[in-house]
Design a protein that fits this description.
Strand 23 and strand 24 form a beta hairpin. The strands form eight sheets. A seven-stranded mixed beta sheet has the order 19-18-14-21-26-23-24, with no helix packed on it. Strands 3-20-28-27-22-25 form a six-stranded mixed beta sheet, with no helix packed on it. Helices cover about 5% and strands about 40% of the residues. The longest helix is centred in the middle third of the chain and has 6 residues. It is mainly beta. The protein is built from six helices and 39 strands. Bound molecules: CU-O-CU linkage (C2O) and copper (II) ion (CU). The site of CU-O-CU linkage has 10 residues, from strand 9 and strand 38.
Length: about 500
């Protein structure tokens, strides 16, 4: 399979204000937008080398066998646009948050203090936890308060993340910087064989494309995105990468990279600059059955993936940004050059990483989930979930033990990123084509193209609650805040 390459090596392009195939109504609201090519950064290759910033690993204090993690949600300033100070927010710092690493079976407690001056919540995206500690809008907590959810880690090794999830404020709070990586480790043979030394050979890569005006004000909604002076900076682990290719000197002969697209809506595709393949080992919820060569990895908002790369085969990685909403970033950024400072040769990768039993869905309960739009309002099954009452009106209710097959039907012309809380799902087919390759892996977030259909299957294991909801929604944070979100109640069978 060939893939499009611009054949320009380290050359990068930036464009302002790409309009995607938005519906007429949305496009009409952005008539001021035009395509203006900005200056090409032709001198980038000669720029001084800047080491990749790696988020701190958060240390727990252990009390009575419970690992307690402390997160302080705070405001600050950060240069998301080079040379311009922006008002931002983060966990324990002024932008983004530390990485939390837990192990399957651990008892953990998160002590989260809100010093944002506004209500918030924190959701553990992709975590299989009871609804009451999932961090949805029902557990929003006020400025000055501390929320202390406790749970037992109950899933396979994977790369998750954490971010706010209150009603109507997710885009604002995430775009200001409230996001961090959550790594789950386990005692599998694959985990033992794969790199796992955080910051040494196990490297988090949080990718974001933001919308920021010339004064540094971070934008997150339609009004904001209509600002005439928008820039769409690309950030790697919170640091502006518009004109910088970060460097990482590998001291181990094999690296593992964990990618997260923490953008509100833009799509980020990762590929090697030299045109050869990437070795993908995991989708969002688990290892693949085996390491798989892929030309590129396309991450919609909220998605993650993991690769391994041998230091001797070190590479420059490119991120291709595609506008995911009415406006957004675009262009190709060479964001990371890995150099080989290691000695020795890595052991062969295990021939098998995981066993994935594909669902026989013949007896599964079927549902259709329509992604809908009325005017500018995004909805699910026609209901715009911008209030708790509306979220309940669109509620999907099921029971523990239920096995279901859902057709996610995008009746809009817009791109969506469908995310399900609580349990992982398998992709059965995409617009009629059966899943294959890395799409056979366990996921929690999946791209649904305009007019497209994705069929997924899942089993609601373990946790029921009569009061607290999980959610299903579009992970384009603007769509989620505009109402493309519904409650998911899982009750006892
Ligand atoms: Cu990443 Cu419902 O969220
Ligand atoms: Cu959407």
């Amino acid at each position: 399979m060939s893939r499009k390459r611009n054949g320009k090596g380290m050359h990068r392009r930036r464009f302002l204000g790409g309009l995607v195939g938005a519906g007429a109504a949305l496009a009409a609201t952005t008539t001021a937008v035009s395509l203006i090519a900005l200056t090409d950064d032709k001198n980038k290759a000669s720029a001084a080398s800047v080491a990749l910033t790696i988020p701190d690993l958060l240390t727990a204090t252990t009390t009575n066998g419970v690992d307690v993690y402390t997160l302080d949600m705070q405001t600050g300033t950060s240069e998301v646009l080079s040379g311009v100070s922006s008002t931002t927010a983060g966990f324990n710092q002024s932008f983004l948050g530390p990485t939390i690493k837990v192990t399957n079976g651990d008892s953990v407690q998160m002590n989260v203090t809100n010093n944002l001056g506004a209500d918030t919540t924190v959701h553990w995206h992709g975590a299989h936890v009871p609804a009451k500690v999932d961090g949805g809008p029902q557990v929003a907590f006020a400025n000055g308060e501390t929320w202390s959810p406790a749970f037992t880690v109950n899933q396979e090794a994977c790369t998750l993340w954490y971010h706010p999830h209150a009603l109507g404020t997710t885009a604002e709070q995430v775009s200001k910087g409230l996001a961090g990586m959550l790594i789950v480790d386990d005692d599998s043979d694959a985990s033992a064989a794969l790199p796992s030394d955080y910051g040494v050979d196990d490297i988090p890569i949080i990718l974001q494309c933001l919308a920021v005006d010339n004064a540094g004000d971070i934008k997150y909604n339609l009004t904001g995105y209509q600002s005439s002076t928008l820039n769409f900076p690309f950030l790697v682990n919170g640091v502006n990468a518009d004109s910088t290719t970060f460097t990482f000197a590998a001291t181990k002969s094999r690296l593992r990279l964990r990618f997260l697209n923490a953008s509100l809506s833009d799509i980020i595709t990762i590929q090697r600059n030299d045109g050869s393949t990437l070795t993908q080992i995991a989708t969002e919820q688990a290892y693949l059955t085996k390491a798989t060569e892929v030309d590129s990895i396309r991450l919609v908002a909220g998605s993650r993936a993991e690769i391994v790369i041998d230091a001797a085969d070190a590479a420059t990685l490119d991120a291709v940004i595609t506008t995911g909403w009415v406006r957004g970033g675009s262009g190709t950024y060479s964001f990371l050059t890995i150099s080989d400072s290691s000695s020795g040769t890595p052991a062969d990768l295990p021939s098998t990483l995981n066993t994935i039993t594909r669902y026989d869905t013949s007896a599964f309960t079927a549902r259709t989930i329509k992604l809908t739009q009325s005017g500018l309002n995004m909805g699910i099954n026609g209901v715009v979930g911008t209030t708790m009452a509306a979220m309940k009106a669109a509620e999907i209710s099921t029971t523990v033990g239920a096995k279901e097959i859902w057709t996610i039907a995008n009746s809009t012309q817009l791109e969506h990123s469908f995310h399900l809380h609580d349990v992982p799902f398998q992709v059965i087919s995409t617009s009629g084509t059966a899943a294959s390759g890395v799409d056979l892996g366990w996921k929690d977030t999946v791209e649904v193209i305009g007019g497209g259909t994705v069929v997924i299957a899942m089993e609601f294991t373990d946790y029921s609650d009569d009061t607290y909801m999980y959610m299903l929604h579009c992970h384009l944070a603007q769509h989620e805040d505009e109402g493309m979100m519904a409650a998911l109640m899982v009750t006892a069978s």
